[in-house]
Each structure stands twice: as structure tokens, then as C-alpha cells.
Design a protein that fits this description.
5 helices, 9 strands, nine-stranded antiparallel sheet, 215 residues, alpha+beta, globular
């Protein structure tokens, strides 16, 4: 196999990223960008983000999860605590989140530390999920090897019968993480690959320091 992608090119010309229009707080910039992208561009899941962790085998691994809430404190998502990513976070809470909104020619890269959110917050979100999603969280030993798909389908059917007409409790192994950022970089595509890159870093006094990076 020898596939040459050298001719795949695109000129980024839609927008610009200038310091004079930016807040001193990157969380406010993120909120503005998210709203603009979600409102003005045809992107299926604006909240889809890639999370990268350092696995127990020493290798980084990235996968897409869904952002469910963001505040001045950080970025919240939900998953199985006993999954591969959950074990990786327990071993090393330093993670990286990234959003790539192709139609807006924008990217956001977030470095931070992940920690579990309060159990009552996980309970509240779990209760808000569709019943099928609740059962899906309960039936799946995420990241574990299974013989075939029928194993999950049989388990799901058994749980549907067990909880028919009953509330489904949140399993202890499932809940939320908040990623508290220490660095956030905003990337805006520009012509001739001279992209705008603005990086915010949290200093020892918990103030955000802003720098422009060479593309």
C-alpha cells in the first residue's frame, strides 16, 4: 500500500484571531467560540472532543467523547471509570482535550488535570439520560474483551426484563470527570498556513498569561 496525500490542500480564509478581541479569561473565549460554531456552522456534534490519556502501557491514546458541560472551573464529560481511559486517568490525571471544527477552520487544545465530579452530580446527569443509554452504561464492561456482540445483546435483554417498570440506578463504576485546564490554545486557520495561534497558560498565581505562537 502506498497512498500519496500530498495534493490534499485547503486554503483557510474564513476568519482571524486577534488579541484585541479576546478576553483575559480563555474560558470566556471558549464559550464565545462554541456558541459561534454551534449557531453558525453545520456541525453535527459541536461538543464532540478528543481526549488523550497516557495508558498503563506507557502509550498515549486518543478517542472521541462528548462534552456535557463547561464552566469557569473546567470541562465535564461522563464515562465508565473502569474503562481503559478511566484506568489511565486514575494512574495519570494529566490529559489533553481537543476540538476541531473544520467548517469554522478552528481548533482548541486544552491541557489539564481530570478528576471525578461529586457523586450527586453524576446521579443527576444519569437520571436525565434516555432509558436505553442508562441500560447501555449498566450492561457494558467498557474496554473488556467479549466473545461476540450477542453477549452484550443477551445481557441487555436480561437487564430490560429485570428493570421493567423500575428506576435504573447509576452504577458505581460510571460517572463524570471534570478537566481543570492549565493551558488552552486557540487555533484559527489563515491563508498560506500563517495560522493564528493564541495560547493561555495558568501561572503560579492562578492568572492566565496570553501569548501568540508562531504557526
Amino acid at each position: 500500500m502506498n497512498t500519496d496525500l500530498g495534493d490534499y490542500r485547503k486554503s483557510y480564509e474564513k476568519q482571524e484571531l486577534l488579541e484585541k478581541y479576546l478576553s483575559d479569561n480563555p474560558l470566556e473565549v471558549f464559550q464565545k467560540w462554541f456558541h459561534e460554531v454551534d449557531t453558525n456552522f453545520n456541525i453535527g456534534e459541536t461538543n464532540a472532543m478528543t481526549i488523550s490519556t497516557i495508558g498503563l502501557d506507557g502509550f498515549p491514546k486518543s478517542r472521541v467523547v462528548l462534552l456535557k458541560k463547561f464552566t469557569y472551573e473546567g470541562f465535564i464529560f461522563y464515562t465508565n471509570y473502569e474503562s481503559e481511559k478511566g484506568k489511565a486517568i486514575a494512574n495519570n490525571p494529566n490529559v489533553c482535550l481537543s476540538f476541531f471544527w473544520a467548517e469554522a477552520e478552528r481548533q482548541v487544545i486544552i491541557k489539564g488535570k481530570a478528576e471525578k465530579i461529586a457523586e450527586n452530580l453524576s446521579d443527576g446527569y444519569f437520571e436525565s439520560r434516555p432509558r436505553g443509554s442508562q441500560l447501555g452504561a449498566l450492561v457494558s464492561n467498557q474496554s473488556e474483551i467479549i466473545k461476540n456482540r450477542s453477549v452484550i445483546e443477551k445481557s441487555l435483554k436480561a437487564l430490560e426484563e429485570e428493570f421493567e417498570g423500575k428506576d435504573i440506578p447509576r452504577p458505581d463504576f460510571w460517572g463524570g470527570y471534570i478537566v481543570k485546564p492549565v493551558e488552552i490554545e486557540f487555533w484559527q486557520g489563515r491563508p498560506n498556513r500563517l495560522h493564528d495561534r493564541i495560547r493561555y497558560q495558568l501561572n503560579k498565581n492562578f492568572d492566565w498569561i496570553q501569548d501568540r505562537l508562531s504557526p
